[in-house]
Amino acid sequence: MVSKTKLLMNVEKIRADFPILSRTVRGKPLVYLDSAATSQKPQAVIDSVSDFYSRYNANVHRAIYELGEEATRAYEGAREKIAQFIHARSPNEVAFTKSTTESINTIAYGWGIKGKLREGDEIVSTVMEHHSNHVPWFFVQDAKGVKMKWVGMSDDGALKMEDYDTMITKRTKVVTVTQCSNVLGTINPVQEIAKRAHEVGAICVVDAAQSVPHMPVDVQKIDCDFLAFSGHKMLGPTGIGVLYGKEERLQEMEPLMGGGEMIREVHLGIAKWNDVPFKFEGGTPNMAGAIGLGVAVDYLNKIGMDNVRQHEVELTEYALDALSDVKGFHGFGLKDASRRGGVISFTLGDVHPHDIASILDVEGIAIRSGHHCAQPLMERLNVPATARASFYVYNTPEEADRLAAGLRKVLDVFA
Amino acid sequence: MVSKTKLLMNVEKIRADFPILSRTVRGKPLVYLDSAATSQKPQAVIDSVSDFYSRYNANVHRAIYELGEEATRAYEGAREKIAQFIHARSPNEVAFTKSTTESINTIAYGWGIKGKLREGDEIVSTVMEHHSNHVPWFFVQDAKGVKMKWVGMSDDGALKMEDYDTMITKRTKVVTVTQCSNVLGTINPVQEIAKRAHEVGAICVVDAAQSVPHMPVDVQKIDCDFLAFSGHKMLGPTGIGVLYGKEERLQEMEPLMGGGEMIREVHLGIAKWNDVPFKFEGGTPNMAGAIGLGVAVDYLNKIGMDNVRQHEVELTEYALDALSDVKGFHGFGLKDASRRGGVISFTLGDVHPHDIASILDVEGIAIRSGHHCAQPLMERLNVPATARASFYVYNTPEEADRLAAGLRKVLDVFA
Amino acid sequence: MADLKALYQEQILDHSKNPRNFHKLEPADRTALGRNPLCGDQFTVYLRMEGDRIADVAFEGQGCAISKSSASMMTQAVKGKTEDEAEHLFDRFHDLVMGKEADPDSLGKLAVFQGVSEFPIRVKCASLSWHTLKAALESKGSISME
Amino acid sequence: MADLKALYQEQILDHSKNPRNFHKLEPADRTALGRNPLCGDQFTVYLRMEGDRIADVAFEGQGCAISKSSASMMTQAVKGKTEDEAEHLFDRFHDLVMGKEADPDSLGKLAVFQGVSEFPIRVKCASLSWHTLKAALESKGSISME
Ligand SMILES: Cc1ncc(COP(=O)(O)O)c(C=O)c1O
Ligand SMILES: Cc1ncc(COP(=O)(O)O)c(C=O)c1O
Question: What is the ipTM of this complex?
């Protein structure tokens, strides 16, 4: 068992930066254990958004005046920070979208529907994807007669890597996979998977919605072609996401949305696209969102992504230990905390996850229950739903203890 | 000439609500005349965003805990306010997007590319559209072999309504038009155009990016099938837009993006959509953006949209008058301010619009120069670019005077 | 613990553990499947009608304590009622869980669901079986809520 | 007015009103079209080469005062230079307008464009003709900037 004092980060100092963490819920101090759904925001991020609106709000790129130049500098500055954060070769490889979901749809349309995929081509995905990395590919399947295959999973929650041996063939054009499961926390070997994809000339798409916020991610090391994540899950504002793509890939790809900003020339009936990444940023972007995400990246860098990761490993280990003492607790996923993110899905005897969540809510503890936008995975696990607790930089071992105590209360109610 | 004191609104009181308006630019007090690009934000909107992040930030719809319920209530409350603001029949007719651009792309894909349009069908647009209402339709044209036609414009900037007589035929399936030109300010008779569309069974799409922020808009009276606008142009946050659609139309239409929130059921290879409007809200939405837009609507309602409109008519009249005294000033668009929005595009002798904008910038005056994302209109006007000043609730006649004085300085420099 | 007791009343727990009329009805005149894909809840409601009257009613399926106990008590409440009476009762039940019912006690045993109104997101749990009943009465095969 | 004077120097205004080498070159060895669709600026640069050397250079087109005067002064600056010298001069000119040139005065007349560095969005205006020159030297037919 991890001792509570072992935690390397000064979590109390971090907590002080998050105003929401001092609030109470139903009379109890809030224990927020739903960061996999959306994270809380430090004051610095909140202030950066207010500051943009209060001091230099203007449309970016086209304004020939001071305000517009300040806004453009901050917006493009955020792009640079994010590019560095994921080790992209250049800021041109980072396009702003509204979410992981938009980023993946952009790839599915641009590479799949409007792109090069043909009937007979194949897409290899997995059973543990979030709906946002399932449904866009179903669009491609339906529009282009492309065949989909899904890599399976062992009972303990690891991808069946051997499935790739048979599923990846010369027909494979896209291999898509989540780097970290939002239900099980499983961290998948995306570098290995990208390599397999490239061996047959397929591209590799990585859903990094649960990885970029929680661990160091290096797109050059992974060598993926595309990677997608959301700002709101990494201390950033809502409504901002990132589409990373290798510059050549972005250049080859058709844009999803047409409009202002993304064009170079428009005549009646004809348009020419702007350079990457602007080609993918049709319409006025979420400028405050991008700038706030840049500040979130600063904040995470200050802590250090290695420390973030380490903190979550320790906390997950501690929590798994504390929870395993609760009667009827059944946790899903790998036992080894070093192979998973800070996400614990579980059931408790035959108490329905909805009831668990409601009772914990009364205790001030916010967890999630349901299918977590991963119904195919629920079918694979053969459960209608699970309860899920997820951690971030501001969570403490004491909160894991309160969760365990809360679950005991659930058992009391249903005794 | 309108006397300065005639203005009915207490603009000074309004200005005090906008923190950015007290800043200086290059040592001069800011005169912000670029609201057609993006508007400034009142403190109440800025605070509502901070407040969301500081007090009740949580993912909407699926959270079984207090925070999530508060967030959902506020998010859905914003939807109700917006529905009322545009006189929709029900909040189900309002879907949140990231921008006008996304809203129009959603229609073009959902109705056009994934929808019912076939080779031989026709789309009737106009020469005065913004790129965001041009390019998405070019996608449909290219993907489906649909033919596009563009209604022309008289030299003074009015749509040639008689073009509709010949262009709308039995082949017409979509008629799309901007309610207010972002370059000329021309207000188009969208109600009449919708009627013409419906006579042949076509749908009518209205780009309301420049109308909803500035005048009362009643979607039931217009009787359009779809209508699109952006939050950032109406005192709201960046990264939030609205897609209005008649409920039957939304039900018939395929979604643009697949992902979380927008589905009811997902199995491997198969997905069933959620109800409208959620079907169009794939991914975690811009919750802070939607809530902030709701507060912007409250703010506009408090002023009253009739007053907003009246203020801009008066200001435009005043400004046109003041500017017409400047040597070489050439204004585009209708002379009658009651038929146009608060947008004045102009040239000044043979001084290039870029130079005008730079010199005004040094005077603290922010205007726009360029093609305003309306290159086909520039071609129609036969100018490479124009300068553009645009007004909103916080602008004053004194600012119009400063603009006129600034233009005289431009003439001095180039004398 | 005030709200907790309000939500998980003794009777609710009892009905969730020992649901009444929890079986298939064969033959059934009308049947409907109700689902809430968000939480995986899923109930089938079976009806045997005598003219306009619900002669017998039963259900099968799985769900949370709120949805299961509500289904169980729903079957007890509507057995013997006419279609109109059942629909009227649903309206009042809906008001109850929405916190809009002025006189909860007049709803008899169903009044225990009043506490749900403090947990708006659970309203759908409490009303799933009722919606399914309605679908069965209207002979719609299945419904889906979210 | 400090910045304003810095940007719109007397010489810049003079060259924008009376551009030098402002005509077509016939025949030209190399030519390129440069455009900035944002503002509609558009210049054609014509070159007559003698071996590696720019024997003659001229331009045509339209644009703002900054882009036009820059094109005019560019033609004066590169006439007689070798390709390498011209490219090197472009690099230094670019540094100048980006505010990175340590010794502006060593650039001679071109130093008047130093003020552009205070207006980053105008950098593209000042460098459009230079990019076009480069495209012509590399025999690319046209370029587009934004
Ligand atoms: C008439 C018109 N349509 C569409 C748009 C596009 O709006 P957005 O950039 O917010 O998507 C604009 C504004 O730029 C506009 O003025
Ligand atoms: C693994 C994974 N992929 C994709 C998403 C979708 O992210 P968003 O809703 O921000 O688009 C999520 C989060 O919900 C996720 O956990």
Answer: 0.94
**pTM for the predicted model, two decimal places:** 0.95
Q: Is A101 in the pocket of ligand 2 (CB under 6 A)?
A: yes
CA nearest to C143 within chain B: B264
Side chain identity at A168, as an amino acid letter? I
- The answer to whether the CB of B358 falls within 8 A of the CB of D119 is yes
Q: How far is A389 from A36, CA to CA, in rounded Å?
A: 8
Distance CA A197, CA D122 (A): 45
Q: Give the span between the Cα atoms of B346 and B389, in whole angstroms.
A: 8
- Picking from A21, A22, A16, A18, the residue whose alpha carbon sits closest to that of residue A32 is A21
* Residue C54 pLDDT > 70: yes
C53 and C90 Cβ atoms separated by less than 8 Å: no
Asked if A353's CB is within 8 angstroms of C39's CB, the reply is yes
Cα(A132) to centroid(ligand 2), Å: 6
Residue A131 confidence (pLDDT): 97
CA angle, A57 as apex, A53 and A62 as ends, to 5°?
Answer: 160
Which residue blocks in C2-144 are alpha helix, DSSP H? 2-7, 10-17, 65-78, 83-97, 123-137
Domain ranges across chain B: 4-32+305-413, 46-301
Token pair for residue A233?
Answer: 């899950």
Distance, CA of C18 to chain centre? 15
B149-196 pLDDT, tens digit per residue, is: 999 999 999 999 999 999 999 999 999 999 999 999 999 999 999 999
Report chain A's mean pLDDT, rounded to a whole number: 96
Report the C-alpha gap between B62 and B280 in whole angstroms. Answer: 17
Q: Least CB-CB distance to B358: which of D1, D37, D119?
A: D119
Q: Is a pLDDT exceeding 70 seen at residue B3?
A: no
The CATH code for residues A46-301 is 3.40.640.10
Between CA A137 and CA C121, with CA B60 as vertex, the angle to 5 degrees is: 115
Q: Is the CB of B258 under 6 A from ligand 2?
A: no
Nearest to B38 by CA among A58, D94, A224: A58
CATH number of B4-32+305-413: 3.90.1150.10
Measured between alpha carbons, how far is B123 from B146 in angstroms, rounded to an integer? 7
Cα–Cα distance measured from residue A395 to residue A382, given in angstroms and rounded to the nearest whole number: 30
Amino acid residing at C3:
D
CA of B324 relative to ligand 2 center, distance in Å: 55
Q: Taking CA A144 as the corner, what is the angle to CA A143 and CA A148, rounded to the nearest 5 degrees?
A: 100
What is the token pair recorded at A84?
């560095």
Whole-angstrom distance, CA of residue A196 vs CA of residue A190: 10
- Tokens for B55, please give them: 């007090």
Domains delineated in chain D: 2-144 (3.90.1010.10)
CB contact at 8 A, B258 and A105: yes
pLDDT computed for residue B1 by the predictor: 45
